[in-house]
Design goal:
Elements (H helix, E strand, L loop, with lengths): L3 H8 L2 H22 L9 H6 L1 H15 L8 H13 L6 H17 L5 H31 L8 E10 L4 E8 L13 E8 L4 E8 L9 E6 L11 H9 L5 E4 L16 E6 L3 H13 L6 E7 L8 H10 L3 E7 L14 E2 L17 E6 L1 H13 L7 E5 L8
Parallel strand pairs: 7-8, 7-11, 8-9, 9-10, 11-12
Antiparallel strand pairs: 1-2, 1-6, 2-5, 3-4, 3-6
């Protein structure tokens, strides 16, 4: 634990971080990549270009400063970060490099306001944070190494099958080149994949949820091809996967990670709520529950723009008809003319949990919400207004995050 004087110095920087945090993190990344270009392939350069990673890091540093008296408050976030770090191969030896550039950036951005005493305090604070994350990450690496079928670092896989699921989403079935097995991951987890991006001239990692139940001889991800829109650049890695990666292509894969997982120690009903490609971890959860012959009631609520982008609709409809404990509900925001007579959706417009049919909001259920951040914010607020306890709401947003990733 840091001494009181050090904590007070760090807390005193909170107003400055609120005002200059993004400038600081922007300077930090530019400085680090200039001095250590070998780290560029470890970081999501798409998020770097959009500025979302700089924003995420600024918010994380601010949160750490605000909670420096009790970092335990941030443990859920730190666990998420540790999983992300392990999934892209960040190791203990990276932390001194990051710390050096962070402290130098504080000095260079704040100038005379960054006294030697303040820099010493932030060095101690960063050291505390690094120790927490390194300990968590070492434990995750160790567990991955001893899990049957598991590994650490990157492992070569072959795309054994590529299936078009919708106008935007394709599934990639991945089998280990070495012929070995794959681990029994937890439904809801993701893997990192690494491909060469010609536009950047470097390898790039990305995380994608596993979209089928564990217990197969393969891993499956289902990837949305992110197009350029409203000033947002096209997805660099997703476009490489759709355009350049075919059956027979090789791809680097890190082991399954993530703490957004199905709680299997409960017999409560399960309500799975998703939008767009957020359906992928929900599908893994649904399949797993049914494969395990679970008697838990399952509600599968999904929203998408229209039938052309509705992935896995036949599979979910078949499971809904086959299993009496499953009930599905699908919203099309703007159905096309050819969707009007479709049996693949139930409601037109945006998903509104306050008006869904009876039997889909179950007070004693566990709720799993996944999709774009704005969608999740609306659905979580609705669940809380309907009296659902926060401890029953489990969430994962698709986007950037983390202290250093």
């Amino acid at each position: 634990m840091l001494d009181t004087h050090t904590r007070n110095l760090v807390k005193a920087t909170v107003p400055v971080l609120k005002e200059y945090g993004v400038s600081l993190t922007r300077h930090f990344y530019a400085r680090m990549f200039s001095h250590n270009p070998e780290l560029k392939p470890v970081f999501n350069q798409g998020n770097q270009q959009s500025g979302s990673q700089q924003q995420a890091l600024a918010m994380a540093v601010l949160a750490y400063a605000e909670h420096i008296d009790n970092p335990a408050v941030l443990m859920p976030t730190l666990t998420l970060v540790a999983n992300k770090h392990v999934s892209v191969g960040i190791r203990a030896e990276h932390y001194p490099v990051v710390g050096m550039h962070l402290l130098a950036s504080i000095k260079e951005v704040l100038g005379d306001a960054a006294s030697e005493e303040l820099l010493v305090a932030w060095a101690a604070a960063y050291g505390q944070l690094a120790d927490i994350l390194i300990a968590q990450e070492n434990a995750i690496y160790a567990k991955a190494a001893i899990t049957p079928g598991g590994w650490t670092g990157w492992r070569s896989f072959i795309i054994s099958k590529k299936i078009v699921e919708s106008e935007e989403i394709s599934s990639f079935y991945l089998q280990a080149v070495d012929g070995g097995s794959v681990p029994d991951y937890k439904p809801g987890q993701y893997i990192s994949i690494k491909v060469f991006v010609p536009e950047l001239g470097m390898m790039q990692p990305r995380q994608y949820s596993l979209s089928c139940a564990p217990g197969q001889a393969y891993l499956r991800i289902s990837v949305k091809r992110e197009a350029e829109m409203a000033g947002k650049p096209a997805g660099l890695v997703s476009n490489v996967l759709h355009r350049d990666c075919h059956e027979g292509s090789l791809i680097d894969v890190a082991p399954p990670m993530g703490d957004f997982v199905l709680h299997e120690d409960r017999d409560t009903p399960v309500v799975l709520i998703s939008a767009g490609v957020g359906v992928t971890p929900k599908l893994a959860m649904l399949e797993h529950l049914l494969k395990q012959n679970s008697k838990r009631e399952i509600r599968f609520v999904h929203a998408c723009r229209h039938g052309g982008v509705h992935a896995f609709k036949q599979q979910v409809r078949d499971l809904n008809e086959q299993y009496t404990q499953v009930k599905s509900l699908t919203y099309y925001e703007v159905p096309r003319a050819e969707d009007q007579q479709s049996v693949d959706y139930d409601q037109e417009g945006r998903l509104d949990l306050n008006t869904v049919a009876s039997g889909f909001i179950l007070p004693e259920a566990d709720y799993y919400v996944c999709g774009p951040r704005s969608f999740m914010q609306v659905q979580i607020a609705s669940l809380k207004s309907l009296g659902i306890a926060s401890t029953r709401i489990h969430k994962e947003a698709f986007g950037s995050g983390g202290f250093a990733h």
